[in-house]
Write a structure and sequence with these properties.
This protein has 5 helices and 5 strands. It has one domain. 19% of the residues are buried. Helix 3 packs across helix 4. It is an alpha+beta fold and 171 residues long. Strand 1, helix 2 and strand 2 form a beta-alpha-beta unit. A 3-stranded antiparallel β-sheet has the order 3-4-5, covered by helices on one side.
Length: 171
């Protein structure tokens, strides 16, 4: 997926920041550094956040409200209702944003509240590995007005490529 993000645009002004948090055992600083070396793109920087502060802040600032809005809009008995509702019952520190991609315009400044991304998606369901462009799960997109159908990061990053192209994104 990281390679697909990098290839999402030929824009040399693109900067990509990967933030690793210990969500699964392989999410550690040595693995982040190893992947950064293998990726080998000068536009990327990889960080390790052992306390999950970035994910917790993004959850509080943007995705918690989005999850509540989505939960209210889901049809009764929808398969994601229980998953999203159960997640929201836990403190933000126990449910940081991860498995997500956020897109910001150049020059954005971060303050006490993180800036709202111009595009963001969070994987909430995973059902297969595929680099062929086949759906691999469900990705909820921040601000989406309708329920997301099965998709995958390769599919979404190709859509982001169309959005970004070689131009600057403005909010």
């Amino acid at each position: 997926m990281q390679k697909e993000i990098i290839e999402a645009t030929s824009n040399t002004n693109l900067a990509v920041y990967f933030v690793w948090m210990p969500m699964v055992p392989s999410d550690d600083s040595p693995n982040a550094l190893d992947i950064a070396r293998r990726l080998g793109d000068a536009r990327t920087q990889q960080f390790y956040d052992p306390k999950r502060q970035v994910g917790t802040q993004l959850e509080r600032d943007h995705f918690e409200r989005f999850a509540r809005e989505l939960l209210a809009a889901l049809p009764q008995g929808h398969a994601l209702s229980q998953r999203i509702g159960g997640r929201l019952k836990r403190p933000a520190e126990e449910r940081p944003l991860w498995d997500a991609v956020l897109l910001y315009p150049p020059g954005i400044e971060w303050g006490a509240i993180s800036p709202k991304p111009v595009w963001a998606g969070r994987q909430v369901e995973f059902f297969s590995d595929s680099e062929s462009g086949e759906p691999t799960g469900v990705i909820l997109k921040l601000g989406a007005k309708e329920m997301t159908k099965p998709t995958g990061w390769f599919i979404e990053m190709r859509e982001v490529r169309k959005l970004v192209g070689d131009r600057t994104i403005v909010p």
